[in-house]
Design a protein that fits this description.
298 residues; mainly alpha; 12 helices
Length: 298
C-alpha cells in the first residue's frame, strides 16, 4: 500500500504564504479613491509640498540634460509619472498608514520611511523604476526624432499642428502610445502593491514584486481599470502645465495605500510596536531644532 503524503499548496512564483492576495472588484477602486481623497483633505499641505516637486524636477533636469525645447516630451513626461509614481508616493503611504492607525500624521512623519527595515529593498525597486522612466523618455525622444527629425517645434500651435493634422503626427501618436502602454503595464504589474507591502510588512523586493504579480493575475480586469484611472487622472492633472498634479499625485498616493489594504490581507499576527512618547510642548529655545521634529522622536 502506497502512502500518499499531503503536500502543501505551492504559492505562485514562490511567494510567502503570509502575503495572501484577495479578489477585489471595481467598487473597491472607488472606495480606495474616496479614502485617498479623505486622507488628502485631512493632511493636504504636506501632499502639495511632497508631490509638486516631482514634475518641476523632471522638467528642469530634462531641460538641462537634453539642451533643447521640452515641448515634444511634455506628454511622455506626464505619462512617465505612472512609472515612478509608486516610489514617489512612499511618504504618502506612511501618512495614510499612520492615520489609519489613529496616530498623528503630519508632514515630518513622512520621513519615517527612511527608518523602515526594508528601506534598502524599497530604494532598490525605486531605482529600477527610475531607470525604466529614463528608458521611456529616451525611447519617446527617439520616436519623435525618427518621425519629425531633429528640428524642434517652433511653438505650441506649430507642435499641435504637426501632431494632430499630419500623417506623421498620427503615426507618432499610435506608436508612442503603444510603446508607452507597454512600459506602463510593466511598471503597474511589478509595483501595484509592492511599495506599501515593503513599508507595512517589511517584505523583500522579490517577495513584493511577486505579490504584485499575483495581485494582477488574480484581479486582471480590476487592476487594468486601476491603471486606466491612474493614467486618465495624470493626464487631466497635467493640464495646464502640470499644476493639477499637486492634487492628483497625493490623492493617488493615498488611494494606492488603501488599494493595497484591499488587495493584501493584513498580517494576522502583526508585530507589537512600542508607542512613541508624546513630543510635548515646544519652546522658542528649541529653535531651530523645532523645525525638524522627527529628529527629536525616538
Amino acid at each position: 500500500m502506497t502512502t500518499v503524503f499531503a503536500r502543501p499548496k505551492l504559492q505562485l512564483f514562490g511567494v510567502s504564504a503570509a502575503f495572501v492576495v484577495r479578489k477585489i472588484g471595481l467598487s473597491d477602486l472607488g472606495d480606495a479613491l474616496r479614502l485617498g481623497w479623505e486622507d488628502f483633505n485631512a493632511i493636504p499641505t504636506h501632499a502639495v509640498v511632497l508631490c509638486v516637486i516631482y514634475p518641476i524636477i523632471g522638467l528642469v533636469l530634462f531641460r538641462l540634460v537634453l539642451g533643447y525645447s521640452l515641448l515634444p516630451l511634455l506628454f511622455p513626461l506626464a505619462a512617465g509619472f505612472t512609472l515612478i509614481g509608486p516610489f514617489a508616493a512612499l511618504g504618502l503611504y506612511e501618512l495614510s498608514r499612520r492615520r489609519e492607525r489613529g496616530e498623528e500624521a503630519a508632514a515630518w512623519h513622512a520621513m519615517h520611511v527612511l527608518n523602515t527595515p526594508s528601506f534598502g529593498a524599497i530604494l532598490g525597486l525605486g531605482t529600477f523604476l527610475f531607470a525604466l522612466f529614463a528608458i521611456w523618455i529616451t525611447v519617446a525622444d527617439a520616436i519623435y526624432i525618427a518621425t519629425f527629425g531633429q528640428a524642434p517645434a517652433a511653438s505650441i500651435p506649430d507642435f499641435a499642428r504637426r501632431v494632430l493634422t499630419t500623417p506623421e503626427g498620427w503615426s507618432l501618436i499610435i506608436i508612442g502610445c503603444g510603446v508607452g502602454f507597454l512600459f506602463a503595464v510593466v511598471a503597474l504589474c511589478i509595483s501595484v502593491v509592492s511599495f506599501p507591502l515593503m513599508l507595512d510588512r517589511h517584505a523583500t523586493a522579490i517577495d513584493a514584486i511577486r505579490t504584485s504579480l499575483r495581485a494582477v493575475m488574480k484581479n486582471p480586469i480590476t487592476i487594468a481599470a486601476w491603471g486606466l484611472i491612474v493614467a486618465v487622472l495624470l493626464v487631466v492633472g497635467s493640464l495646464p502645465f502640470f499644476v493639477g498634479l499637486a492634487v492628483v499625485l497625493p490623492v493617488l498616493g493615498h488611494a494606492t495605500w488603501h488599494l493595497y489594504r484591499k488587495v493584501v490581507e493584513p498580517d494576522p499576527n502583526p508585530p507589537q510596536e512600542q508607542p512613541r512618547p508624546p513630543i510635548g510642548h515646544r519652546y522658542a529655545a528649541d529653535f531651530p531644532a523645532s523645525l525638524f521634529p522627527w529628529s527629536r522622536e525616538s
